Amino acid sequence: MESYGLDPHGLALLEAYRALRPCLERLEPAVVSKVRADIADKGLMVTAVDSRIKKESSLAGKLSLKGGKYGEVTDVTDLLGVRVITFYSDDVDKIASMVENLFDIDRENSVDKRKMHELDSFGYNSLHYVCRAPGLVPGADDIRFEVQIRTALQHVWATLYHDTGYKSGIEIPREYLRDMNRLAGMLELVDEQFCRIRTGITDYRRRVETLVADGRLDEVALDGDTYRRYLLLRPFDRLNRRIAALNQAEIQEGPLIQFLPLLRAMGMETLGDLDRMVRERWEDAYQLAVYQLGVTDLDIISSSVALQNLCFAYILRQGGGRAGLRRMFDTLNGPSDSNDILADMICKQAETLKII
Amino acid sequence: MEITIKNENEVMYCQMNGRLDTLASQQAAKDIQPLLDHAEQEIIIDCSGLEYISSSGLRLLLTLRKETARKGGKVIIRNIREEIRQIFLMTGFYNLFEIQ
Known about the structure:
The structure holds two protein chains of two kinds. Chain A has 14 helices and eight strands.
């Protein structure tokens, strides 16, 4: 067995570590699955849950530096380390609270570097809990392990800082210390800004939900979120059913999200604009369908027919003509010569129906 | 109705010739089985020889679309004649497929 130049006390601790290792190997997956399961239960998203058992050589290094500090090997609190990396800084608190409920926390040895940060202005926020998990794995009740919680950006900073080879802010040359601190500050701002954006988007979606539910559609700008919300109201169903009734056709659900760029290109700025098109071009859209499908025995349509015909009617009534229809097909299907054929086809039908 | 299928470089090529009406669709449903079996791939259907398509034919294409969507593949329809293009447009099927 390698002795790593340790004194007798250090060697005794190392021997105890070797005896403890099988237990650590059972504890590691148990702790990780408990953390992962709870994260999933709470619907939280994290980038990673990593873990490691301290290597013998690493422990030996620690013991050679400060072996006298430890009476027993279980006094070393990071023999097992688990790291949870979150996307957002406010999720660090949520995971922290989760960890507090899952395990017994050794408060005296747990460190919230986010608070230390205010004091010495060095380092980057992260949260370390020293924990025990009584009853989780037989024989492991006395083993303490560390759970580290940080954001992805905090992790990047810590990893790159670790790469410098300096263990603390005291060791690093002052000129580089200043640069590392500047970076830490910048990343902290970025983390905060991402949180603010996420909160803003959540608030926006709630506000939109209320406005749509209250029918205040003119107050809702047309974008991906609001359009999806509007589609939940099934605004084209009635027209689709009326069209389907022509041939007792079945309606196949088709994607409507691809119409969003077209609606924007047509000048629709709010859900109110879209809703007005449905109301005002309803009859034109239906008459187009009558003209097209009425003389066929086609008994299957896609649910995009109503919106497609509404767009035809809107463009033509706005005076967009053939060029407008061509642009519509270019937007929906991508530019192609065959879009001219489609535009001509609809123009001819519209002329007959006096939509042009 | 004649359906020819070949698998080349991870792409399924299908040539449809004739009238895909209700009667022909029954046999066609069996003929396209290799396409359904390889729905994780890109499927290119050449319709240059397709003279007519009925609702049953559209349903057949829809089955193909659903299977490719489920397995991660894609259906591309090429060279459709004007009459078929019109049917795709009036039924809204134009928005369901990539038509080249």
